[in-house]
Design brief:
heterodimer; A: Rossmann fold; Coagulation Factor XIII, Chain A, domain 1; 2 domains; six-stranded mixed sheet; B: 275 residues; mainly alpha; globular
């Protein structure tokens, strides 16, 4: 099997100096005294990208995605390990890198394409495609310094994506332009995929990787934590983002949540529900000391952190009295009018005036909603369509 | 090294385009454009001509031709160094974001200055034709002398542009060093003056490859032996050629080129991190 890119045991270390010394005086003054911290941006990365594959690389900020891409394109060199690439590479690390403001769009196309390693002949053949793709027919002989930022970026993208490399690397640049241009970019990526070219794709837009990648690698502080099927990796990504940044917990814990469960309409514990179904949120608590009249609350949020619904016992006019020992509080949601997706539940126990938080669990549990309808949005609103040809 | 060279060959079009860009951008938005390219040599000719031909009497016939045949190659040398030293540091957008053989950056500076040099030489030769200068047959060696200088200056350009990434002092150092270096070459004074006054120091003086290269330029363009037999004060000669020095200069020029290229490719890996 031919690999387009083969990354073997690649590690990359940056030396973090406290201050970058660049003049002779400083070098002499600090000679031998200046230590540096080692920072390993990548640790023993092994990836094989087959020819024709589209690989997505995802991960939180600072996980090493861009460093890895720069190592593949030979902008940076790995401290250890090696990277073998087969075929010409065009990298979209920054659009319009190397554009000369004092040259015209036309001149910049030739210059930029040759920076990417493509000949005048190849560009000649695709010149009209590039200009058409960038929608700059009228401005192509104007100086780039007079271009708007949108025109600038469109031209950069049009060049890189039309020069037909064997391997195309894209770093977080698809998020440019208006929706129509983005759509066009995705269509072009489809074409490139169809012609059997290899694409490596770095992005924060993980949902997009599900759409266009054949496999996905997830990085976390320079290590591969998950790789393979896009759906699975993206699910894992969402999960880990929750556990790392959310899942926070605080409070005095005089009374605390010891467990939470979701029960369906048949009384079975489940995390899979469908739109419109009944759900009971069952909260187990344990009060080590008697707690006077606490308030139990919960909220349901989608993956963006948007609160779909929230309530508490006080809002519902329920007084719990003094609680001690173990017990259960249930919220019976008669219907879940929300659409497909993953939802998170945060829980809280606090005093009547909310001044004292006994226990707060942020996005502690989650459940999935399946839906028969293909409606979009967050809410399910039953809707009928009436048509009156010729008017009523 | 061979891989590197073939990679460079693959990117020859980029080199061509970058050179063109250097030329185009330099005089963009200036009314006089390429006329500026002639300004420095003309001003220097006026100043030095005034000082050395009128104030400091030197009895040389056609001092202006002597001056220009050494000054133009020297300006080519200095301008190339000044333009290339910041060529890598001055393009962080490219170096940090795109892969290409980095040596293209200093080489494009060399290329752009070669263009300027030819332009100036052309004007100079038109002038020589007008005054009906009797050219020496040695002029046929133009390409060889030119190649010698290009090798030497390219080697230095690679060396200093790479070193400047790690130590920004290089830029300032080059500025000062070339200023002093100018006087170590027989451009505004004839080499014979030195021969007469400090014959002991001649071998040391000729250790400077640029002095030799300037001497060759003067030999093939000015060549008083050919043109006029009565040159200068008695005993002082305006040209000097020695076989030993020639071999030495050729070896040094080639050596500097190889050293510069080696140093550049060796340090190049760290460029993106250092800029």
């Amino acid at each position: 099997m031919a690999y387009a890119v083969e990354i073997s045991d690649v590690s990359k270390m940056f030396k973090l100096y406290h201050e970058n010394v660049r003049s002779l005086k400083e070098k002499v003054l600090f000679f031998g005294r200046r230590g540096y911290e080692e920072f390993w941006a990548l640790n023993d990365i092994n990836i094989q990208v087959k020819e024709g594959e589209t690989l997505g690389i995802i991960g939180a900020n600072g996980s090493g995605k861009s460093t890895l891409l720069k190592c593949i394109t030979k902008i940076l060199y790995p401290t250890k390990g090696r990277i073998v690439t087969n075929g010409s590479i065009a990298a979209l690390l920054e659009l319009g890198a190397g554009f000369q403001p004092d040259l015209t769009g036309r001149e910049n196309i030739y210059l930029n394409a040759s920076i990417l390693g493509f000949s005048k002949k190849e560009v000649d053949r695709r010149f009209d495609d590039i200009v058409g793709f960038a929608e700059l027919e009228r401005f192509i002989d104007n100086h780039v310094r007079n271009y708007s930022s949108g025109m600038f970026i469109r031209l950069g993208f049009a060049i890189a994506i039309n020069v037909d490399p064997d391997i195309l690397m894209i770093d977080e640049v698809l998020a440019v332009g208006d929706e129509a241009f983005q759509r066009k970019c995705l269509d072009r990526i489809d074409e490139i995929q169809a012609s059997g070219k290899t694409i490596i794709f770095v992005t924060h837009n993980v949902e997009l990787t599900k759409e266009i990648c054949t496999s996905v690698v997830m990085l976390e502080s320079g290590n591969i934590v998950k790789e393979g099927n896009p759906r699975e990796v993206v699910a894992y990504y969402h999960q880990s983002m929750e556990t790392t940044q959310e899942g926070a917990e605080r409070g005095t814990k005089q009374i605390q949540v010891t467990g939470v469960g979701f029960l369906d309409d048949k009384g079975n514990v489940s995390t899979n529900f469908h739109t419109g179904q009944q759900m009971i949120v069952r909260v187990h608590y344990n009060a080590e000391v008697p707690v006077e009249d606490p308030v139990f609350g919960f909220s349901i949020e989608d993956y963006r952190g948007f609160t779909a619904f929230g309530t508490n016992t006080k809002l519902k006019g329920v007084s719990l009295g003094t609680l001690e020992g173990e017990g259960i509080v249930e919220f019976d949601l008669q219907s879940l009018p929300i659409l497909e997706g993953k939802y998170f539940v945060s829980l809280a126990i606090h005093s009547q005036d909310e001044q004292l938080v006994y226990h707060w669990l942020d996005k502690h549990a989650s459940f999935d909603i399946a839906s028969d309808t293909s409606d979009i949005g967050l809410l399910y609103i039953p809707c009928n369509v009436n048509v009156f040809p010729g008017g009523k | 090294m061979r891989d590197r060279l073939s990679d460079l060959l693959l990117h020859r079009e980029l080199l061509y385009n970058m050179t063109k860009k250097e030329l185009k951008v330099k005089y963009k938005r200036s009314a006089l454009g390429f006329v500026w390219s002639f300004m420095t040599p003309i001003i220097m000719l006026a100043v030095f001509g005034l000082v050395f031909a009128l104030l400091v009497k030197n009895n040389m016939s056609w001092f202006a031709v002597y001056l220009m045949s050494g000054l133009l190659p020297w300006l080519f040398f200095v301008n190339t160094l000044m333009q290339s030293v910041g060529s890598v540091v001055g393009n962080p957008g490219l170096v940090k974001k795109v892969y290409f053989p980095r040596e293209v950056l200093p080489l494009a500076a060399v290329g752009a200055n070669i263009f300027h040099f030819f332009l100036q030489m052309m004007v100079f030769f038109v002038f020589l034709l007008i005054i009906q200068w009797q050219f020496s047959p040695w002029l046929a060696m133009f390409p060889v002398v030119f190649l010698l200088e290009v090798m030497f200056v390219t080697g230095l350009a690679l060396l200093i542009s790479a070193a400047n990434v790690y130590l920004r002092d290089v830029q300032h150092f080059v500025e000062l060093a070339t200023m002093a270096w100018f006087w170590l070459n027989p451009i505004v004074y004839p080499v014979g003056l030195l021969q007469d006054k400090f014959p002991k120091y001649m071998p040391i003086y000729l250790l400077n490859p640029m002095a030799n290269i300037i001497l060759y330029w003067q030999y093939i363009i000015y060549n008083p032996y050919h043109y006029a037999h009565n040159v200068g004060a008695p005993g002082s000669s305006a040209v000097y050629i020695s076989d030993k020095a020639m071999l030495y200069t050729a070896l040094i020029s080639f050596g500097v080129l190889v050293l510069g290229y080696w140093f550049f490719t060796k340090t190049e890996r760290g460029f993106a991190e250092q800029i």
